[in-house]
Amino acid sequence: MRKLLPFMKKYILYAISSPILMILEVVADIIIPYLMSRIVDIGIANRDIDYIVKTGLIMVVAAIFGILFGVLSSHCGAKAGYGFAAEIRQVAFEKVQSFSFANLDQFSVSSLITRLTNDCNTIGQVTMMSLRMAVRAPFLMLFALIMAFNINASLAKVFMIAIPLLGIIITIVLSKARPLFIKMQSRVDRVNAITQENLTGIRVVKSFNRQKHEEGRFKERNDALRDTALKAISLVIFLFPVMNLVVYATIMAVLWFGGQQVTVGTMGGGELISFITYITQVLMALMLISFFFMQLLRGSASVKRIIEILNTETEIKEVSSPVKELKDGSIQYKNVSFRYPGSSERTLKNINIEIKSGEIVGIIGSTGSSKSTLVQLIPRLYDVTEGSILVGGRNVKEYDIKSLRDQVAFILQKNTLFSGTLRENMLWGKENASDEQIINALKLAQAWEFVSKYDDGLDHRVEQGGDNFSGGQKQRLSIARALLKSPKIIILDDSTSAVDMTTDAKIQKSLKEELGHITTFIIAQRISSIQHADKILVMHEGEIESYGNHEMLMKQSPIYQEIYISQQKGVIGE
Ligand SMILES: Nc1ncnc2c1ncn2[C@@H]1O[C@H](COP(=O)(O)OP(=O)(O)O)[C@@H](O)[C@H]1O
Ligand SMILES: [Mg+2]
């Protein structure tokens, strides 16, 4: 919790005012029963109308102030609580933005969503309530106890039985509820996980007719959540009638003993009435305390989950005075090996290659042969496990990460567009690009041929994830977006797999002719996409099986020959 406290800084005034105002409300709550007893014992007993009216008016004023302070306190509490939560959410979101790919592998997306929404909300609510209850309960209890003892110390002995009794009941129930609340949180996570996975893949689910199966999986987790929630809640529900029972029993005892004192004349009737009110207040305060602890329980689980995000350090670190400018697009792998975090096997083994600036490098190999892994190391999406990678003659680790990624355009195998307009998506590549520059990039990527047909052109809407475009269209838009960066190195990871052969050939041609000075990596399934490359790497099980141009590989590489022959026959590839 201490780690989160700095986020309260902006709202500190509200966080302090809320409990102070709350104390004032408690004072009003305590004065009112006292005034009431005066009205009964002095005003009514002496038939003094003036006194009754005067004291009654003071009572009304106290009540109005009480309400006023109460409302203000709630308002300040809400501002502090939800402001605090918003602050934490913002910082956690920024932290997630700084996560490396390895960090993202570690947290699931659904769990991150739950943390940024549910958990932050819970922290806000709990803070709001804590600010008020943590002060209200003890003060109410203290003041009411003092008043009760003042009125009649001997009668106040009932507290000696009632308070410990309630304390024991509360402790037992809370200790039983605690593990249930923690369990509930992880069950919520499981339901969120399956909801998220299913909804992102809903089209696949439908096309495979797996709805029934998915409903079953969902039901199982949903039921588990319901059962745990029910168990936890029934414990809490049980708490209230039992507490009420104790409260009423205490009132009965007070009426019994106090009633005798009133008949004898050692206690005023008004005093007895206000005494009962104070008893209710003391016991209410105890209930509030129990409720407060329950809230804390809920909050502490959420705090823990947020702290986990904030404490995650990205292992992709920058050196103290990083280089900003890439000299050229040359690349050298020196004895590079790579293992995914958490995996025992090396995914890349002893890679040694040298690529001159401006060369076109094709990479081919079966799926899982580590083609994507090989190129992900250049913009430091992951760091090498052993060896080093030089870009423009310097180790990638010496560069400022932002500059490196600006100059190395990477079109991910699983690329997406974001909701907004086409123009907005293109501006990701270059913030201040003119429409002409955008159109030029679209033309190079062979995307202008379909974009130019839209009535609204660059203002055309892009739905979330780019779902209103075909796979091949999305790929071409992604290429255009990357080209706008005018990078020194461009990496196309299977970026034309969904584009027809003719268009693919046009893209390859324009990349070669227009972007001769840019080092280009083309990962492809089709030999035709990389045939023209200066160099072709044939990947096999994390190693470079052979390395050369098309003609050389046709003579030397059995794997390359096999791929070539199979594609000539049209078995694989299309
Ligand atoms: N994020 C990841 N965490 C752990 N293992 C991974 C991850 N991504 C890929 N791998 C593993 O690394 C190997 C190479 O994957 P990849 O480079 O994507 O192959 P390709 O692009 O050639 O199809 C595969 O065996 C895959 O299971
Ligand atoms: Mg791949």
Tell me what the structure shows.
It is a single chain. The chain is an alpha/beta fold and 574 residues long. The protein has two domains: 5-310, Up-down Bundle (ABC transporter transmembrane region fold), CATH 1.20.1560.10; 331-561, P-loop containing nucleotide triphosphate hydrolases (Rossmann fold), CATH 3.40.50.300. The chain is built from 18 helices and twelve strands. The strands form three sheets. The chain has a six-stranded mixed sheet. Strands 2-1-4-5 form a four-stranded antiparallel sheet, with no helix packed on it. β4 and β5 form a beta hairpin. α4 runs antiparallel to α5 (158-200), α7 packs antiparallel against α8 (269-310) and α17 crosses α18. The mean pLDDT is 90. The site of magnesium ion (MG) has 5 residues, from α9.
Number of helices: 18
Rg, Cα atoms, Å: 36 Å
What string gives the helices and strands in order?
A: HHHHHHHHEEEHEEHEEHHHEHEHEHEEHH
CATH topology of the largest domain: ABC transporter transmembrane region fold
Whole-number count of domains? 2
Bound ligands: adenosine-5'-diphosphate, magnesium ion
Q: What's the CATH class label of the largest domain? A: Mainly Alpha
Through-space gap between termini: 57 Å
CATH A-level architecture of the largest domain: Up-down Bundle
Number of extended strands: 12
Structural class: alpha/beta
Question: How would you write the strand order of the largest sheet?
Answer: 6-9-10-3-11-12
Low-confidence stretches: none
Main sheet summary: 6 strands, mixed
